[in-house]
Amino acid sequence: MHKVLDKFGIYDLVGVLLSGISICTFSLLVLQLVYNIQIDMGLQINKALTFLVLSYFVGLIFQELSSLIQKKITFRNNALLKQSLNTSEKSHILLTQKERDGIYSYVKIKLNLDEDNDNVVYNYCKFYVIENYDTTRIDKDQSLSAMSRSLSLYFLILSIFVIITAFINPKPLYIFLIFLSALFSVLLHYRCIRFAKLRYIYIFRTFYYNVVVQNNAL
């Protein structure tokens, strides 16, 4: 089982399959409990396998759509990376100015850069860390961020769909579902941003303390 999970990948498992299962399961509950559409989902093996396969492709669709929206609309021009590079001397999460300056100075010397380039610096740090250090923490943060992003998009679409339904046939249950879906969408959006930033910062800090500091100590 461990070998299967290694080949499948934590990103596919959490970011795609688990998010797809969550979307499909919640959709089935909404269809049955809210819209009174009964769907027979027995425990037969063939139905279980069909559900897993369907969940994977649903998760894949939402993963790609949410990624596209994030890159083209909500965080264009690597806005999320730039936010992750903000510094603070009081926060234990954000980089300090010394950490940021140390990373940029080291990479600029290594690559002979004349000016700061966030993308180049991040790519250098990321590929160095991936090639030389344990990436379990990085993979986990990336997967949780991706899962939250997909589910945030799903609940946004669900809230819009229920709003349309409420206009046609107003019911207190629809109002509650609209509120619940909107709340989940916002919460998951912030969760997506938080884990994405943590991933960026962890990569930078790993590079700083294992490469920059070690080389300056020599």
Query: Treating each run of at least 4 consecutive H or I residues as one helix, how many helices?
Result: 8
Secondary structure category: mainly alpha
Strand content: under 5%
Structure summary, number of beta strands? 0
Specify the biggest β-sheet.
none
Instruction: Determine the mean pLDDT.
Output: 88
Rg (CA only): 21 Å
> Level of helix content?
over 70%
Tell the overall outline: elongated
Q: What gap, in angstroms, lies between the N and C termini? A: 44 Å
Order of helices and strands: HHHHHHHH
Outline the low-pLDDT stretches. Answer: 1-7
Describe the protein's topology.
Elements: H1 2-8, H2 10-33, H3 45-74, H4 79-84, H5 97-111, H6 118-132, H7 136-168, H8 172-217
Helix pairs in contact: 2-3, 2-7, 3-7, 5-8, 6-8, 7-8
Describe the protein in words:
With 218 residues, the chain is mainly alpha-helical. It is built from 8 helices and no strands. It has helices spanning 2-8, 10-33, 45-74, 79-84, 97-111, 118-132, 136-168, 172-217. Helix 2 (10-33) packs across helix 3 (45-74), helix 5 (97-111) packs across helix 8 (172-217) and helix 6 (118-132) packs across helix 8 (172-217). The protein is elongated.
